[in-house]
Amino acid sequence: MRERTIASHFARAATGGARRMGYDYAELLHRLGISAELLDEPRARIAPEQFSALLQGLWLALDDEYLGLARSPSKRGTFAMMCHALIHCSTLEKALGRGLLFYSLFPDSPGLTLAREEQWVRLSLDDSQLRDPDHFLSESLLVIWHRLGSWLIGQRIALEQASFSYPKPGHSAEYDLLFPCPLEFGAQRTSLLFHSRYLGMPLLQDERTLKHFLEHSPADLLSRPDDGDSLSSRLRRLLSRDSSRWPDLDAVAAHLHISPQTLRRHLREEGSSFQELKDQLRRDIAIYHLRRADLSLQQIAWQLGFSEPSAFHRAFKKWTGLTPGAYRAQDS
């Protein structure tokens, strides 16, 4: 129940190329239990497994790992072949270099480069030629390469900054799922910055572990959140341990050995609040049970700490734009 749900924005953005190409994906959405009402509601959420299955379904239907959002398609299996090409490299620097060289052999492939800046390394993307108005492919490529690199060396690569060549979008609050680091919009280029020490680290993966990795990648790289080291991420993990008992802010601050005022200030600096984090967790737990139909609406309301089902009904509609009953009905 700790899974983070995905904003409907990303599902709509993922289908943008298919819409432009005239592909009718209505049957795919129906099969995945994603209603048109949910897809069109800006506040709505979908489960990570739904999002992953949507991406895989679109890749299969379009035979394009770029989802119709680049100048030329990238046939299914290209990412897997690239991974096989780099898996025997000795260090992360050599692996990333070989992977980027692999993609540079394809005409019209999105341009990715890796460059050192003193003690830092910048992974940059030339997104000027993409057919990607929602920036879904741009953000996906950065996420995939960051998480692939982290998987190769067996530890999360801490990001120092994520920069984007476009203005701050309306869904920017979702970026902590993807890039838990300082963000810069309206930058000269779209890029990720991290410390150069990671480049010299040896690869801890091999052909055997790669086979398992490729069973669900790169879709699952995009559908799971980045459990970073931010205070917000730590609080989500703490609160999700026991959803039947919701500690107040003072209790959480005492657990973290800081004052309530300091906790509020740090969360505010990260663009969040204690109440917002609790509501996000409640929302995601509610969606978990609504999709599985294992509890009644009243039982879900009680588990989330609501004294009356009507209060849960109002809160869920505020969070997602849909009533609990409407959300459950789409999966039936």
Automatic annotation (TrEMBL):
Residues 233-330 form the HTH araC/xylS-type domain. One of its GO terms (cellular component) is cytosol. The keyword DNA-binding applies. GO terms for molecular function: DNA-binding transcription factor activity; transcription cis-regulatory region binding. The keyword Chloroplast does not apply. It comes from the Bacteria. Keywords: DNA-binding, Transcription, Transcription regulation. PANTHER family: HTH-TYPE TRANSCRIPTIONAL REGULATOR GADX, HTH-TYPE TRANSCRIPTIONAL REGULATOR VQSM. This is AraC family transcriptional regulator. It comes from Pseudomonas kielensis.
